[in-house]
Amino acid sequence: MAKRRVAVVVGARGVIGGNLIDHLEATGEWEIVGLSRRGGVDTDRVRHIAVDLLDEHDAAEKLSELRDVTHIFYAAYQDRPSWAELVAPNVAMLVNTVNAIEPVAAGLEHISLMQGYKVYGAHLGPFKTPARESDPPHMPPEFNVDQQQFLEDRQRGTRWTWSAIRPSVVCGFALGNPMNLALVIAVYATMSKELGVPLRFPGKPGAYTSLIEMTDAGLLAEATVWAATTPERANQAFNINNGDLFRWDEMLPKIAEFFELDVAPPLPMSMDVVMADKEPVWNGLVAKHGLEPTPYSDVSSWAFGDFVFGWDYDVIADGSKARRLGFHRHVETAQMFLDIFRDLRARKIIP
Ligand SMILES: NC(=O)c1ccc[n+]([C@@H]2O[C@H](COP(=O)([O-])OP(=O)(O)OC[C@H]3O[C@@H](n4cnc5c(N)ncnc54)[C@H](OP(=O)(O)O)[C@@H]3O)[C@@H](O)[C@H]2O)c1
């Protein structure tokens, strides 16, 4: 009989956590507990707990029953206006989670930590590329690094192991998330069409032609479980990306074709500013096409669009370590975008 596996997905309503739950559920091999403040709809295999992980007492009280947990998949996130301000809340949520579950879960085998290219300083400026897992750290503070340090220290002398997963920009279905590039592009293109304007790259001039890569949320979920379930992959980090590189000047025409739009030359602008007054346009689209009534705020990660489209330098990391150790799945990024747009249509989020 297969060993019983119980996963706690921390950040169950996130673009990463939500897609990880879908993957774990589809394998049929896991019992799953999802943690978020919002909670969620339970299924046969998934039970949601609404908890505020910033509150150590709430975490201790609500998570003390999780005695059967074998794997913790940590993908919660608290957004803040500056890089330095990200550290305290994001470290506190991880610490409160581990403090609440580790002492009661005698069969705990693994804690998986979701990180990103911020470990390499990708958000700060032109960093060394391709970034490798063995690259030296950059000037602190950096919440991903502090989280990993906490796990490494906490793991010493225990029976469980850890892994750290470093995706590029993650693309998959989710609503109401601060970092959701596929939705930014889908809604921007939809609004461009509604307003009768061609699709223009809104980022910095150099960003149109820099090399970049994406990480499909489904591929990421598979890689995360892969790294968490075999001893040889324990206690180390993995870059996880689709496996192909691209430049926006090549990608944008493919996206425009999907939405039946012309492409015009780039026009650098802040999406956060120019899309701020477009709520009535969105509400009009929802009414006209009978879409799911999704509030404009839930489809508006415009600041994240500005952030990603502002990278006028290459943002790439070497994903070969995971492939050398046996993770071979790859995703064609253009196809990934179109698949996500089709999914958004099928869910009646966009027309
Ligand atoms: N999205 C990307 O493109 C991307 C790329 C690379 C790396 N990453 C990294 O991956 C990690 C996860 O990112 P994400 O984009 O998936 O985040 P996200 O979509 O914002 O999801 C965050 C999750 O954390 C939960 N959460 C937030 N505060 C909480 C609290 N106080 N108590 C309990 N749950 C809480 C949220 O649910 P509630 O709001 O309901 O609480 C949500 O489920 C982050 O470290 C991020 O830096 C993301």
Q: What does it look like?
A:
- This protein is an alpha/beta fold and 351 residues long.
- The chain has two domains: 191 residues, Rossmann fold, CATH 3.40.50.720; 139 residues, 3-Layer(aba) Sandwich (Rossmann fold).
- Helix content is 36%, strand content 14%.
- The chain has twelve helices and eleven strands.
- The strands form three sheets. It has a seven-stranded parallel beta sheet, with helices on both faces. A two-stranded parallel sheet has the order 7-9.
- Strand 5, helix 4 and strand 6 form a beta-alpha-beta unit.
- It is globular, with a radius of gyration of 20 Å.
- It starts with a strand and ends in a 5-residue tail after the last helix.
- The model has no long low-confidence stretch (mean pLDDT 97).
- InterPro entries: NAD(P)-bd_dom_sf, PRISE-like_Rossmann-fold.
- This is Nucleoside-diphosphate-sugar epimerase.
Q: Could you provide a short overview of the structure?
A:
By secondary structure, this protein is an alpha/beta fold.
